[in-house]
Amino acid sequence: MGNSKRTIETPTARPSIQAATRGLLGTFARGHPRNAIESHVKEIKRTTVTAALPYANGPLHIGHIAGAYLPADIYVRCLRARGQEVLFVCGSDEHGAAITIRAMKDGTTPRAIVDKYHAMMGKAFVDFGIHFDIYHRTSAELHKQTSQDFFLKLYENGAFTEQEELQYYDEEAKQFLADRYIKGTCPVCGNTEAYGDQCEKCGSALSPKELKDPRSTLSGSKPVLKPTSHWYLPMERSQQWVEEWINNGVLDGVQQHDAGEWKPQVLGQCNSWLKDGLRPRAMTRDLDWGVPVPLPNAEGKVLYVWLDAPIGYITATKQWAMDKGVAWEPWWKSDDTRLLHFIGKDNIVFHCIIFPILLKMHGGYILPQNVPANEFLNLEGQKLSTSRNWAVWLHEYIERWPDRQDELRYALASILPEFKDSEFTWKDFQDKNNNELVSILGNFVQRVFVLCHKFHDGKVPAPSGGNEQDVLLWAELNILPNKVAEEVDRFRFRDAMASAMQAARLGNKYLTDTEPWKLEKTDPERVRTILFNSLRITAALSVLLEPFLPFTAGKLRRMLGLKELKWEDALRADLIVPGTSLGKPEHLFKPIDDGPIAAEVERLHASAPLPAGPVISNDVPAPPPAAKANITFDDFAKLDLRVGTITAAERVPKADKLLKLTIDIGEAAPRTVVSGIAEHYAPEQLAGQQVLLVANLEPRKMRGVESQGMVLMAEDADGKLVFVKPSETIRNGSEVR
Ligand SMILES: [Zn+2]
Fold first, then answer.
1. Do residues 516 and 416 both lie within one domain?
2. How much of the chain exceeds pLDDT 90, in percent?
3. Which residue(s) pair with 38 in the sheet?
4. 199 CA from centroid of ligand 1 (Å)
5. How far apart are CA 289 and CA 489, in angstroms?
6. What's residue 215's pLDDT?
7. How many domains would you assign to the chain?
């Protein structure tokens, strides 16, 4: 389901999740009188995490990884380290017309297609450290039984209406035509190659009967309309409870989730569907590839792939439980289970509306507690496109950059499209590696190990009493484990990773401030304490970074001679034992030159043909905004523009977009400035950054904080925001004119 080529006719799955260690009681309200809701705080015993089933008609690319799989993996690893019971399921989505069409094009069978990509994707996940408990597939026999049973139960419960309708039929091929099997002229833009469900040129969603001059892609003949019957899910009957459940978190009078924890864009998409009014949707298709409809007189019909695919999560759970000899039901049917679907934004309606309706109509199942869908990842200024080969394919990355999974995990985790689309560039990948992984993390660990080997024979030195520097260090370190965990629980993985990396930044600063390499001559006892503390930071890094950089965390553990640790062990004082021999320092990261980066960019352009014909509007950079009216020099001279340096940055509580910055512009006291850049920069990134400040802007209160000026930023039409700053460092307070 994770493949963006997938059409709406075929269910695509990119799952999502929800963390909920926070109480749900605090969220009653929202227009509901407190006494109208049964007082019920869901106590969580276990978490079922699903990641969208990737569609088995092509390999995985980094857009899929950033959309669903990496966030889900980070989330699951963090929960596991904290001792929580989690099940993480995924599998290949192997049905639907897109696969039969692919098989036709390739001159092979649907089975051959799905076997190939199921194996390829399963291996790429393993190689990349995406660690599912089970990676299943929807063409498995168990899935056929599971989804047919599910369908029959819905049927018995009266969930469907049967409707006869006229549908295109190919008299030469002797079969009804799925939407994708019909091409014709788009009524909107005149494209003669539009599909029965969508025009790929103008992006319009279509139905086959809207196409002009329809033709069958099977035989090329003109199809005829013939009556056929299908089973529909009358979704409009569920409109009321779905609205209540999504927006207030209340189902059958019981508080199930806190809608305030759902991402605004997820709620927005759901509500736009709800506002239009839910409508009946066919749950069966005329197709010869899929799960057969288990009813008499349903020959040649299969379950709609968007019905069968999410049931694949349940099938995967069953298979896992059978393999383990445990019960599967608690993971889907127990009130004390939290169900989370990690998906990309193209799958929101299926996971937030259609699948929940199916689960509720079936009965006995819990509904998702959250669906933290991600937006899309772009690549080098353009939308990722499988058909244009504008993509970084995961299996190819692993081949070309062997043993460098964490470098890509890091680059992607730092730009996850959590609240808006984001962009991967090879240059940024290089920068993140060289300036952060090598310079901060690698450099710190390297310095610690070199000094331990140089001064202490590769053994852990014994510490003596600490001083004020140490007290400050621990004060800053001690808050990090909870901070990272809390950010992970809120699906803010970018922030969480930045907070984990803060331990390495603090470690570097500690070494730079204490200079043990100089001190060894005059105060070797103090050096022993410094190195001991630094080894403890390294141990903490092996825990805090594990969800993000599991390969690196493993190396750190080996170097320190530690076993796998729990989250709560991160700063345990007795982890590092004086006198223990340290392992060989392993290479963590090496700098990446311009050569291989340029080669990647070139490869991308060489293999992707230029888009044919008019490009979909999102592909074209929007023109810059229109010019403004002239002003006089005197108008300009009224501005007091100053160079300043950010000395501290923190989030403004309850304001997703705002950061509170402390900026030194050479005055007696630094300025406090509130800036709307929190979605672009983590607070940890900002200290030391030089900026331009409009210093004489009337002070203004935002969220209770007085802002004494405005930081200048440049913004492009895609909403990318960067600092405007002097080309080299200049004294704070310097005037700009
Ligand atoms: Zn069109």
1. yes
2. 70
3. 254
4. 5
5. 40
6. 96
7. 3
